[in-house]
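Researcher: If only I could read backbone structure tokens as easily as an amino acid sequence. Walk me, if you will, through where the backbone shape changes along the chain. I have put the entry right below:
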Amino acid sequence: MLHPVDDQVLALPDKSDNMVSVRWVPLLKCFDAWAQLSWGSAVLSYTYHHLCQAVDRDTTDIASCTPLIMSWIYQRLNGYQQLNRDNHERWMMQIRAKLDRLGVHEIACTPYDAPAWDALRPVWVLTQEEQRTWLAVVPIVCFMYVRMHHVDRLKRQLGGEQQISEDPVNLDGFLAVSARGEDQHWPTRHRQWYDDWRARFTDERQITITPTQYPAMPTQQYFDWW
């Protein structure tokens, strides 16, 4: 039944590996409406939520778009690629030690302008509406999951000068929401956050990118704040 829309659903897997949540079924009432949903923001919200849960020491598995996470790591963190499964536990310990000592110079904050990425990017991504979506500091939502899109902290990755950021919005209270046993219409229950997402094109939600010469290193003022 979900075959026509499996690209979107497979980007939001749970820990079962072979089952799909029934929460997707009501969205199949209208395929035209399905195509108009912001799947990119939903995937990010879902992934951020489960990344936050994965830091619990008792967590042994993760439900999220792990290929997206791995792709970012391989593109942005040099030397963190595991070539095979040999000595996996030792490799993981080495990676944890490296992350503890990770310096700002080791993160490749390059703009998304590589020819390889351009070849994979669909035409609709270049539309003004889509560009303005990803330059907005807004909540990103997926049913009961609510996280913040703090693009104001990633200006270097967009080829801009990084200023000192405002304090992030604390949404830790949503990490305890599992929706088990709840029959909720989440856009109504979380109306404030859904409304904030719909307001993403307003000027006060948009960030300003001040182009700078690559590599865009943080200023001393930013280092002091960090």
Residues 2 and 40 are 18 Å apart (CA to CA). The first strand starts at residue 138 and ends at 142. The radius of gyration is 19 Å. The chain has a mean pLDDT of 80.
